[in-house]
């Protein structure tokens, strides 16, 4: 059987929605364990419950079938006028509230959701019941007071201050006891309802200032006085039962009744005050006899009337001790205080039922120092302790929650914009609290500028009471300059009387990881949706539940066609059951399966899919779904076949190359060797590739040198050309190679390697040696021709000229013929010398040569050799330099000589012109027989002679050879009216 607690609050909740009533009851009992809740589904059931059970408070819905909440309230008030009644409705309005107040409702509350709302309802219930019970206690106290008031020996009167203009001007008598007339000899009829000045027939209210002080401050007062209008000496005690009122207890303090009257008066005053308080009072004399107590004491400790009336303090102590959580400690303190009569004590004690009392004890000492016993005062502080415990628990939980959840907390004083941030708020952004200014600016400056307008709009909407909470997600700058995603939740918790916000609190949640995951999920989904590979997901039975957009172009099946089917729609019939059993065994075992499969698309065409199938597992590792990624490699496989064919063809080409082609890695291992390379080692390509060169090369010294060159190319990253190097072949023959090696990166692995190409120049070297010997012989011949023969011819020319001059007639003609032949031979020798020098010298870069100087010297030389010839130079010659060398004079000398020697005119005429227009053009025109068009190209060939000439043909061959080396051209044109024009173009030197 449950024991009823003295502080239990019994609530009757009337609501036509039983589930809502049950939830409300559960919340109320959680919020305050003193509350017990009974329910009724209608007003009629509620009235039955009130008739059968003791109820401390009624909580009623408004909108109910039958009687509504207001009608139910009116019925309750007829029977229970003061019982707390709270109208708790979901359809509130000002009209309903007004009607409820008019019907005597205790409180009015509109239904809302959330624990805070139920906490508010519980507080309203507790407050209403405590007021109700306090009123009952006051009422009991008033009854006791009325009894004492009527039965005391002293006269007593209750007075009311009279105000005018807000200031007290007098007082009137509201009530008197029976001894009022006895003590003052004034009847009740003559006193009640009249002002004091009229009752006592005085001009000023008696003791007005004192009474006003008591009535307005509530402080008790007592004094003795001689009241002249009555001619008596009185002892007067004054106290105020409520503001604006005061009660006087007075007695005639004549010698025969002074002591008794004072004791009675003090006892009455004490009793009245004691009964009006919420504290339990107990006075025990030095003999441990109970002198006085109040009803609150009995209520707090549940002391039976017969026990307290025994006046036995020790018996009462035994009763009380059993109700305390620590009886020994309680009794020890009590006994120690009785052993120390003058000691004072105050502490808090816990009871077995969970209540807490404040205990105060002090000696009772009279004005003359006489000790009359000990006063014990007990106050129920259970609510306060519960609140303290709850606050402590909430505080601890909040701190744990804040720390455990890493919540940043902010508290904003909206009147000053000062903000208090906790450590987690600062640490979340990589700061310490000392680095964060306690002001709103510290937050605003750190919000991402792109997010700030939205954040401020959300905050403003909440401040304007448009939203229940301020709740945003935005980025904030951290100490290292990065941006972190924060969820910011807050609420205005305090407003002034005008509804203006004064204070707001909130929290920061670090959602950066969540945002990153969301972004990753978005990226993943986009990747799956946008990938060109077909992606599909099945359940554990293989039923397709999802396909991505690429599934249709890869397989030909639409999403509608695929969903609900299984992957067998792609089955090509290429594989037996064992293949698929292996697949299912692999993926159901939690492993990934991967292979290339030949399938059939929706049109029945053969497709090759490279598929990867993996299980999606739960926390226990058991597959819940399967995901497959299929890449259409049909074209790739065909391309691979084509590539393989191309590779085979390329290999065939490489093997047909007559030179050595090879590639080696850093270790000297052959990556590639064509058949020519393999033949050198007496092996096949397959036998060479993959082998170290040192393992197959016949000559170790060759291998070391090759290895050194290979590493030099790999390390430097620069090509190397080895003009000549020896290789001893497998048959012992030494071959000379011209080798080029370049750095090479192996495709796929990125490994450093060297690629080589070697040409066998053994025969070429033999030919060059023979050619060099011939060159040496030609050089000797050239020296003989240039020196010995030319010198002899010069003698012939000299003596022939002398004979011509001294001879007459026929002899002179003979001498002239000899002279011309000798001179021709000298020209031939000069030309042969020039040709030989060109053949012997290596190519040299042209240099700037002054054109006018060289050209005029050639003209003067011609004039000196051929006196009968007419040579004309059209002035002015361009003052330019051309790109040539010291052989340029031979070009002009041979052209001029050719124009005279092969001229059949009686008087050979030669005209020289030159012009410069981006390049230099020199023209040599003659009046000879001309050159047929069909022979104009052939005359520049080596050994070709002029028209009807017996010359060697070296002159024009030399001209073309030199001009071509200079980067110019030489051509032949017709001269008008007869003859030829040789045109030479030469590049101008910059």
Q: How would you describe this structure to a colleague?
A:
One of its GO terms (biological process) is phosphorelay signal transduction system. The modification 4-aspartylphosphate is found at residue 61. It is an enzyme of class 2 (transferase). Residues 10-126 form the Response regulatory domain. Residues 470-523, 591-645, 721-773 form the PAC domain. α1 packs across α5 (115-151), α28 (762-806) packs antiparallel against α29 (810-840) and α30 (851-865) runs parallel beside α31 (888-901). The protein folds into eight domains: 9-138, Response regulator (Rossmann fold, 3-Layer(aba) Sandwich), CATH 3.40.50.2300; 152-276, Beta-Lactamase; 277-391, PAS domain (Beta-Lactamase, 2-Layer Sandwich), CATH 3.30.450.20; 405-516, PAS domain (Beta-Lactamase), CATH 3.30.450; 531-638, PAS domain (Beta-Lactamase, 2-Layer Sandwich), CATH 3.30.450.20; 657-760, Beta-Lactamase (2-Layer Sandwich); 761-842; 845-990, Histidine kinase-like ATPase, C-terminal domain (Heat Shock Protein 90, 2-Layer Sandwich), CATH 3.30.565. The longest helix is centred in the C-terminal third of the chain and has 45 residues, at 762-806. It has a five-stranded parallel beta sheet with strand order 2-1-3-4-5, with helices on both faces. It has a five-stranded antiparallel beta sheet with strand order 7-6-10-9-8. A five-stranded antiparallel beta sheet has the order 12-11-15-14-13, with helices on both faces. It is an alpha+beta fold and 990 residues long. The protein has 32 helices and 37 strands. It starts with 8 loop residues before the first strand and ends with a strand.
